[in-house]
Amino acid sequence: MKPALTALFCGTLFGLGLAVSGMVDPAKVQGFLDIAGHWDPSLAGVMAGAIPVAALFYRLAARRDRSLSGTALPAPPSPRIDRRLIIGSLIFGLGWGAAGMCPGPALAAWLVDGRALFFVAAMAAGMAVQRRFFAG
Amino acid sequence: MGHDLGFALIGGGLIGLAAGLFLLIDGRIAGISGIAGGLLGRWPARWPADLAFLAGLPLGLALYRAGGGHVAVHLPGSTALLIGGGVLVGFGSRMANGCTSGHAVCGLARLSKRSLVATMVFMAAAVAAVAVERAL
Prior knowledge:
With about 140 residues, chain A is mainly alpha-helical.
């Protein structure tokens, strides 16, 4: 099968999961992060649902030399924990908390409220600046 | 809350399924910021698949709505907050080489120590950002 077709299928399934789970609602995400206030822990279910299912497939893939379509499988995760990982995650987390949106939900949420495109455009700009001036 | 938790678990399961199939079939990690960031420079050879995956995100949301699902999106009222948050999310996710999907779903499913550290850091930063926002 063409890789673009399977990618479209996987992306659609991913977007469906974002919509069903409530991850596309910034108010809900901020409620999940508001542990000192009116904490709404329900979004913990997203990770609890996603990680074991993904892990099962990753284990199946780990027994193979190549993916089902014959492409190379990714190298095992790097163990390196460096400043870029920590500082980058810190910056990412501040933005995620402040706006209640991360990349996947933002790329779907604009369909419901077009103002999410402000976030998407700013996110693209932030990525471009990182790539242009802070890469490597 | 119990109702929301059910949706979060099912949605999370779909996200895990999407990430798992993307790896098993195509050998790809379903990290949204990585895929989106890769399309901002010189387009990689696999760009049709990358674009198709990202296009699937709003498509999945649209399908859920078409099937009668309710999708709430309550964005922050401040456009400046959307833009500021977007810049931080874009910049930080690229610097840390991953966001919620790449580190907190795919990375943790691969038992990556790097992703565990990234997830703990961005969760803590996001909790702090929401606490500050609520206090202002």
